[in-house]
Amino acid sequence: MTNNIGFATWTMGDIPFMDYLPRLEEMGYTGIELIGDSARIPVANVLAVVDEYGLSVMSVVAINEIDLAHPLPSMRQESIEMARELLDYCNEINCRKLVLREKPGRMRPIVGRLKEWNLLQQSLRAVMYSASHVGVQVLFLPVNRYEGFLVNTAQDALRLLDRLDPMDANVALNSYYMNLEESGFRSTFENVGSRLGLFYASESNRRALGDGRIDWLELCLSLDAIGYDDDIIIECQAVGADPMLPVGRSPDWPLEVLTFAEQSIAHLRVALAACRP
Q1: Per the confidence metrics, is the pTM higher than 0.70?
Q2: Which of 72, 116, 148, 198 could be disulfide-bonded to 143 (CB atoms 3.0-4.6 Å)?
């Protein structure tokens, strides 16, 4: 099993990442995931700070601004161009993975689910063609029914991406969404198999790993059974945070997130160690 564990920086909101990278390094994190949007961190800043603390950028995730299924051609083309800009951004910061998903909060189709499903496939085909020229892997992340309406399960993601062959089209999975939408972790991992390109470790209540209902030893054993040896991104939120925003109820919510992050990596490393002979 992997030793590469990263931290999802979107959970810290607008707090400059140089303010907490030293703490992440002390905790034992080996990388980070950055947000891919118009306010993304400049390339020079990323390279300087990441190099100083010896952390890799494991992935970039497009969260808020991209809607590849939008029925308006102008909106869809703008989203495709934004995704292409993120591919260049990944390349410039030595990141090899771009994670795409449905636009958060768009809960229903505008002109019809099947039409927008086909539009999403067309848009992904264009993005992945560009990705093949810069050496960045595009991964699609299923989200739960409260955040999207097209791709909610791993099987949905596989059906979406299978039409894109022979391009390099793989899946990212998040245990928080899986806990809501999948029938089980082991069966889902077995179904996805080698198509799993990135895994997010997130507790059932979004708090520290081990503080919810997920059996992390069983989950890690299930990952090990399919030979997964790639990065794991830990994602936890402050208590009371909006699912789409990181800010929690407490004025000390950033410290709360970092406390969860420390508890989470310790809990995950115990589970991972138990998988090794």
Answers
A1: yes
A2: 148
